[in-house]
Every structure is written in C-alpha cells, then in structure tokens.
C-alpha cells in the first residue's frame, strides 16, 4: 500500500488535472513519498490519464510501469474482466454501475495489474450559477453544447441539472474529438464560443472563433484563450457575451456618426453651397468641425465606462 501511494504521488504531481489534485489531496495525510523511488518517464494521455515509469534509486534495472486513469487507459493495458473488486464483482460491471450513477472511476495499476480502484463523485458537481447562465444564453438565442471527457452517465446528469438538451451532450470526448466537433459546427456556418478550464481544452479553445478560459489551470490555456476569467464564476460568460454585443453596437454607432458627420460637413467646407446659396464654412471652423468629429467618437466610446452587466436572477 505504501508503495502504491508513493507511485501515485510521483505520477500525479506531474499534472495539474483536477482528478490528479484530488488524488494528491486524498493521500496528503499518508506517509508520503518513499525516497527510494524516482520518476524516470512520464506520458500524459489526454482524456485517459497518465503513464509513468518509476525506478528504484539504487537499482535502475528494476522498473515499475504505473498507469492511473479511466477505463480507456486501463483497457489498453489489461482486461477489466480479469479483475474484480471486493465482493468478487467483476471490474467491468463495477465500472458500468458507477458510471450509471454519474461517478468517475479511476484505476491505479502497476505492471499491467490493477491494484486500486477509486470512484469519484462531486456532491455539488454543478456550480449554483450554471443553470441561470445556461438559461440566459438560451434566451439570447444561443445553442449550448456540452463537450466533456466524462462518462455518459455523469455528463447527462450534469446536463439535465443545468438545462442543456440531451441531444447536445457529447460525452467521453478526447481533445481531438472536441476540436472536430467545433470545426463541424463552424463548417455549418455557426460561430463558436468555447468555454474551458483545463489543459485538455487547449486545442478546442484555439479552434473556436472565441476561446474563453475560466479559472485556467495552466499558463498554456491562458495564452491560447482570447478571454481569460481569473475566477470560476460562470456568470462571467454572460457578462462577456453581453459586453461584446455592447462594444460591437458602439463601434457601429461610431461609424454611423462619423460617416453622417463627414457627409454633412465636407460638402459645406468645400463650398458646394456657396455659389447657389451663399453658404460657406470658414477654414478655421472646418478644422474645428473635424476635431469635434474625433472628439465625439472618443466621448461615445468612453460611455462604455458606464456599462452595467446583466443582473443575476434572484
């Protein structure tokens, strides 16, 4: 048991994935890392887990092939049917039952043998503002999709709790599959805003027309995203979309005033009406009018400082 805990510490300390942090937190009060072992190789497999090679400090010929991840990673190493949990229940049946209960199953294996099976569940898996955020965006005529690496049972339960239609839920998606789905939506003529918070979301954030990182777990995600929100409040998605529309409307308004202003004053300054009507504009007044054109645009833009985001429903 102590050896497995050491292997978990060595492997999961190499990634910032939420599941890795949960496992490290779970073993935080244990005896800690055995200094006789060290990490030799690490391979992060997006959407599946992590594989590591661990050697003994005094004998590098003694290697331990450690894998920690979901059933997809485990099935590439060994058969679920040949393992069982306490009570003799085959592991594959146990995993199916846990997934139907909206739980995430993580297996810890060494040298193609599963030593531990952990079932993870979040009692409050959805944020309190998630449902109101989805409802508001739907009212604005936006289609809401869920792309997740979680199993189907977990994804559908979360989608139902926040109001996402089941036909727009895509579970057990690898990073490349998320990117392909976004590309498919773009090819159909849609403009896509992708909201993500993890390393696995990086390709999708880059592919989307607008990528928004919520409480990004890594610098890579922050650098790829067009918008970075420094907290985990999902209502910021509403604020960002609402503010973007206000800014775009303000840009169009400024263009209108500039063209209208110039259309009205340039002919006057050029003296077109002078010969027929005796109306002309002094050159000094023309220069002042041009300056006022720029000032009006600046003042119009500064009005955005009075912007107030949409209020959360009570």
What this model shows, in words?
By secondary structure, the chain is of the alpha/beta class. Helix content is about 45%, strand content about 20%. It contains twelve helices and ten strands. The protein has helices at about 1-10, 20-25, 70-75, 90-100, 130-140, 150-160, 175-185, 200-205, 220-225, 235-270, 275, 285-300, and strands at about 35-45, 50-55, 60-70, 105-110, 115-120, 145, 170, 195, 210-215, 225-230. The strands form three sheets. The protein has a five-stranded antiparallel beta sheet. Strands 8-9-10 form a three-stranded parallel beta sheet. Helix 10 runs antiparallel to helix 12. It is elongated, with a radius of gyration of 29 Å. The two termini are about 50 Å apart.
Keywords:
45% helix, elongated, alpha/beta
Spans of 5+ residues with little confidence (pLDDT < 50)?
Answer: none
Cα end-to-end separation: 49 Å
Structural class: alpha/beta
- The overall strand count is 10
| Proportion of residues in β-strands | 15-25%
Radius of gyration: 29 Å
Structural shape: elongated
Order of helices and strands: HHEEEHHEEHEHEHEHEHEHHH
- Please state how the strands of the largest beta sheet are arranged side by side: 1-2-3-4-5
Average predicted confidence as pLDDT:
84
How can the largest sheet be summarized? 5 strands, antiparallel
Q: Number of helix segments?
A: 12
User: Which percent range fits the helix content?
Assistant: 40-55%
Secondary structure layout plus pairing:
Elements: H1 2-12, H2 18-26, E1 37-45, E2 49-56, E3 59-69, H3 71-75, H4 91-100, E4 104-110, E5 113-120, H5 130-139, E6 146-147, H6 152-162, E7 169-170, H7 175-187, E8 193-196, H8 202-207, E9 210-214, H9 219-224, E10 227-229, H10 235-270, H11 274-277, H12 283-302
Parallel strand pairs: 6-7, 8-9, 9-10
Antiparallel strand pairs: 1-2, 2-3, 3-4, 4-5
Helix pairs in contact: 10-12
């Amino acid at each position: 048991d102590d050896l497995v805990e050491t292997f978990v510490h060595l492997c999961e300390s190499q990634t910032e994935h939420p599941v890795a942090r949960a496992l490290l937190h779970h073993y935080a009060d244990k005896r800690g890392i055995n200094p006789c072992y060290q990490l030799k190789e690490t391979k992060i497999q997006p959407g599946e887990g992590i594989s590591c090679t661990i050697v003994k400090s005094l004998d590098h010929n003694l290697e331990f092939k450690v894998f920690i991840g979901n059933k997809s990673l485990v099935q590439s190493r060994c058969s679920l049917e040949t393992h069982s949990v306490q009570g003799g229940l085959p592991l594959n049946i146990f995993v199916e039952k846990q997934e139907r209960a909206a739980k995430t199953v993580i297996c810890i294996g060494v040298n193609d043998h599963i030593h531990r099976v952990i079932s993870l569940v979040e009692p409050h898996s959805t944020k309190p503002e998630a449902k109101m955020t989805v409802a508001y965006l739907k009212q604005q005529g936006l289609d809401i999709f869920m792309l997740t690496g979680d199993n189907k049972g977990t994804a559908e339960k979360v989608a139902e709790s926040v109001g996402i239609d089941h036909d727009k839920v895509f579970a057990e998606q690898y990073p490349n599959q998320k990117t392909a789905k976004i590309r498919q939506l773009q090819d159909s003529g849609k403009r896509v805003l992708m909201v993500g918070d993890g390393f696995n979301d990086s390709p999708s954030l880059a592919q989307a027309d607008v990528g928004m990182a919520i409480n990004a777990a890594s610098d890579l995600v922050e650098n790829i995203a067009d918008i970075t929100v420094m907290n985990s409040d999902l209502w910021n998605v509403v604020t960002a979309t609402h503010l973007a529309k206000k800014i775009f409307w303000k840009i169009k308004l400024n263009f209108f005033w500039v063209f209208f202003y110039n259309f009205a004053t340039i002919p006057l300054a050029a003296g077109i009406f002078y010969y027929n009507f005796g109306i002309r504009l002094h050159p000094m007044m023309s220069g002042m009018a041009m300056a006022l054109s720029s000032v009006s645009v600046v003042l119009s833009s500064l009005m955005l400082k009075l912007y107030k985001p949409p209020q959360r429903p009570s």
